[in-house]
């Protein structure tokens, strides 16, 4: 009797498994770029030269290492805002100067008022559904008289967001603008404890329930030890935690446009580095929003004054930026909104 029951259970189990794999197959097949050449027109506006110019600007000494609340960081926020303004990418109507003030009272004791910078391109079909592309703009400042340039952390992510924004703007000008709204969010206070993104998600400018996804970029310009002989990679973290679909969208974007190795090592639930909890996407995830964290891993110059612009691999930064652009493109234009659902 016991044996019979057991085998019956096994039978039920295998049927369930089959149904699951069929569901996954169906989900994967539902994701495709039917307008690949249009995407290619704009993906090709993302260039190593422009990314280099942004990284060099953001990590330059004049910004004093971009410490939250200090003049150098305020200046770089002004640079970012002026850039959006010059491209005609608008601020939210509620924040006409592009700045969301993050007050002293929401920051650690010795930190002055700071700000998140927000710009967006309104969706042509679903303007009230929002795709976020985020990167922190702050860094470590000046430590013991030395400026910490933070070219990779997070000049690389900042540059990627600026370059992606320009590509979407060009598409919009040609009548190929995103169907959903895309928000370019440069958060403050990451290095001191994810303060800017926490403030934003508790005081969102656009409704949290209409936030489709957040693609967060924090360090994508360098190569870690593991990949010294295989540089074409990126760590993808968190994509499958809230939405199975999002995980496959990143894979489809990669397959169609860049062919990097997508390394999921740090996506393991028991990853002792706990990177999933350590950058700004996490504050969106706690609100139930599907997120992806794009990351190159740590390297010898991580959180050191030697994290300089000349050490960035700009061809690789370009490929990784293209991957994020293609992912955002799909999510902004897919017929149906991404489902926050695990299969
Ligand atoms: Zn960082």
TrEMBL record:
Residues 116-326 form the Peptidase M28 domain. PROSITE patterns: PROKAR_LIPOPROTEIN. InterPro entries: M28_fam (IPR045175), Peptidase_M28 (IPR007484). Pfam families: Peptidase_M28 (PF04389). This is M28 family metallopeptidase.
């Amino acid at each position: 009797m016991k044996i019979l029951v057991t085998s019956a259970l096994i039978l039920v189990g295998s049927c369930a498994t089959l149904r699951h794999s069929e569901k996954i197959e169906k989900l994967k097949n539902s994701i495709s770029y039917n307008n690949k050449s249009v995407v290619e027109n704009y993906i090709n506006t993302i260039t190593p030269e422009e990314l280099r110019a942004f990284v060099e600007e953001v990590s330059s000494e004049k910004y004093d290492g971009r410490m939250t609340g200090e003049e150098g960081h305020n200046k770089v926020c002004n640079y970012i805002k002026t850039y959006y303004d010059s491209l005609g990418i608008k601020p939210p109507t509620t924040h006409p100067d592009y700045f969301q003030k993050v007050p002293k009272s929401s920051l650690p004791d010795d930190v002055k008022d700071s700000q998140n910078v927000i710009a967006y391109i309104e969706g042509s079909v679903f303007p009230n559904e929002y795709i976020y592309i985020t990167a922190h703009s702050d860094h470590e400042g000046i430590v013991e008289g030395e400026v910490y340039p933070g070219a990779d952390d997070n000049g690389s992510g900042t540059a990627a967001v600026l370059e992606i924004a320009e590509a979407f703007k060009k598409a919009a000008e040609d009548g190929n603008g995103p169907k959903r709204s895309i928000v370019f969010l440069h958060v403050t206070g990451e290095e001191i404890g994810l303060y800017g993104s926490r403030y934003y998600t508790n005081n969102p400018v656009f409704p949290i329930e209409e936030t489709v996804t957040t693609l967060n970029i924090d360090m994508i310009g360098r190569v870690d030890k593991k990949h010294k002989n295989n540089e074409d990679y990126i760590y993808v973290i968190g994509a499958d935690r809230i939405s199975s679909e999002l995980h496959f969208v990143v894979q489809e974007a990669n397959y169609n446009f860049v062919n990097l190795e997508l390394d999921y090592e740090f996506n393991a639930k028991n990853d002792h580095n706990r990177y999933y909890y350590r950058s700004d996407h996490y504050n969106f995830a706690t609100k139930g929003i599907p997120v992806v964290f794009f990351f190159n891993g740590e390297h010898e110059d991580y959180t050191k004054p030697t994290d300089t612009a000349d050490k960035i691999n700009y061809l690789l930064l370009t490929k990784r930026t293209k991957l994020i652009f293609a992912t955002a493109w799909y999510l902004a234009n897919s017929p149906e909104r991404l489902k926050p659902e695990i299969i």
